[in-house]
Design goal:
Elements: H1 2-24, E1 30-31, H2 32-38, H3 45-57, E2 61-65, E3 71-75, E4 90-93, E5 99-101, E6 122-125, H4 128-132
Parallel strand pairs: 4-6
Antiparallel strand pairs: 1-3, 2-3, 4-5
Helix pairs in contact: 1-3
This protein binds zinc ion (2 copies).
């Protein structure tokens, strides 16, 4: 029993390392569906979901919803587990579906009697690759 649990921990550590490397090596956002199909040999869906949730809590990645209603994740730059700074917009290309984090920040209006926890702005259009073709 104990041995089985230890094996699961080793597997999870290895899986989180694989996922962290993927995010380190790209500026792009990745959808959960993409990640699940890319790593279906190495880990199951539940493991991927659980690791992504953990990495988000740690401030390593942030998540948002894309055009298709899918959940996307991208690497955070200045976040940690205490402070998530996600107030940047994302851009999704309608032709190739790719999403980038934009470095421009958006200003969140002060709302009377309401507390804003996060903002989600998705700009939709055509990316550089798709407009030049
Ligand atoms: Zn495109
Ligand atoms: Zn982002």
């Amino acid at each position: 029993m104990r041995k089985l649990a230890q094996m699961a921990i080793v597997r999870n550590t290895k899986s989180s390392r694989i996922l962290m490397d993927v995010f380190k090596n790209t500026q792009r956002a990745l959808s959960v569906v993409d990640l699940v199909s890319r790593f279906k040999e190495e880990m199951n869906k539940t493991t991927i979901y659980r690791i992504l949730e953990k990495l988000e809590k740690q401030g390593f990645v942030h998540s948002f919803t894309g055009l298709d209603g899918l959940k996307w994740y991208a690497k955070c730059h200045d976040c940690d587990s205490h402070k998530h700074i996600d107030a940047h917009p994302h851009f999704q290309c309608q032709s190739c579906q790719k999403i980038d984090c934009l470095s421009e920040s958006i200003s969140i209006p002060k709302l009377e009697g309401r507390k804003v926890d996060f903002a989600q702005v998705l700009l939709v259009g055509k990316c550089g690759d798709c407009t030049s073709n």
